[in-house]
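Collaboration report, partner site 2.

Our partner group contributed sequences for two proteins of shared interest, and the home lab folded both. The records are reproduced in the order in which they were received, starting with the first partner submission.
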Amino acid sequence: MTLSGLLLGVGFAGFVDETVFHQLLHWHHFYDRSTPAAGLVSDGLFHAFSWFATVASLFLLMDARRRGRVSRTRWWGGVLVGTGAFQLYDGTVQHKLLDLHQIRYGVDLTPYDWAWNAVAVALLAAGALLLSRTRDRARV
C-alpha cells in the first residue's frame, strides 16, 4: 500500500516537473550539459520514467484493493512522501551535487532553491505524519 503511494508521488512529481518546468516554461531540461537535442531526449526518458512509476503504482493499488488492504491515509502519506522525496532529491542531488540542470537560468537561484526545497520538506513532513498515524494498523 505504501509503495503504491510512494510510486505515485514520484510519478506525479516527475510529471509536474516535466510538464510545467520543462515543457510549458522552458526553464530547463533534465540534462542541460549538452545540446538542446540531448536535453529533449533526456526529457523524454525522464517523462517515460515518471509514467512507468505511475502505472506501477496503479497496479499495486488495484492489487491492494483486490485483497481488501487499502488504507487511504497510508496511501496518501506515501504519495506525499514520494512527491517530497523526489522533489528534495531533484533540488539537492540533481541541481546541486550533479549539476544536471538548475531550476532556471539567468536569475538569482537562491529564492528558487529555497522555495523548491522548502516545499519538498513540507510534503515529506506531511506524508511522514500521515504514515506515522497508520503505523500500528499497518503491522496487523
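Second partner submission, folded after the first:
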Amino acid sequence: MKNSTIFLMAIFVLACSNKNKEAVTNEHQHEQTETAAEPQKPKSPRMAAMAMAGGNHIHIDYSAPSVRGRQIFGGLVAYDEIWVTGAHSATNISFDKDVMIGATQIPAGKYGFFTIPGKEKWTLIFNKQWDMHLADLYQQSEDILRMEVSPEVLPAPIEMLTYAVETPNDRTAVIAMSWDNIRISFEVKNR
C-alpha cells in the first residue's frame, strides 16, 4: 500500500509539472503573438504644416498618402473631380488673422481646402465646411473662394504628399502642395 501511494504521488507530481510546462509554453507563445501583431503605421498619416507670417499663424492639417508605385494624377486622383487634396478627412487650412488670396478677402478662421485637378489648370477651393470625410458632404454653395492656378511639373517625383508654408517676408506667405511630379502653390497676403 505504501508503494502504491508513493507511485500515485509521483504520477501526480509529474502531471502537475507537465501542466506548468504547458502553461509557460502557452504564455510564451501568447507573448510572441502579441509582439508579432504590432500596430501598423497608417498608409496616409495625419500631418501638419505651419508658419508665422507677420504675426499670422497659418496652419494646415492633412493626411499624407504616398505614391507607392501608383499612377496619381489622372489615376488615383481623377482629373476634373473635386478632391480633398490629401486622403481621408478633408484638408483644412486656418488663419489667425484675415488674409487676401488673389482678390478675395478671407476672414480669420478654419476652412476646408479642396482642389479640382486638371491637366492644364487646377481649381483651388476654400470652403466654410472643413470637418468632413473625403468630399462626401462638400457643397459648392459653401465656397468662399475658387481660383485657378497652373500646376508646376517637378524635376523629381515626391513620394509622400507634402504641404509647405513658405514665408518670403512678413506680409506674404506661399502655400504649396507637392506630390508625385506636381506642385501647386498660391500666395497669401496679410491684411
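Feedback sent to the partner group on the second submission included the following. Helices lie at 2-36. The chain has two domains: 1-38, 46-190.
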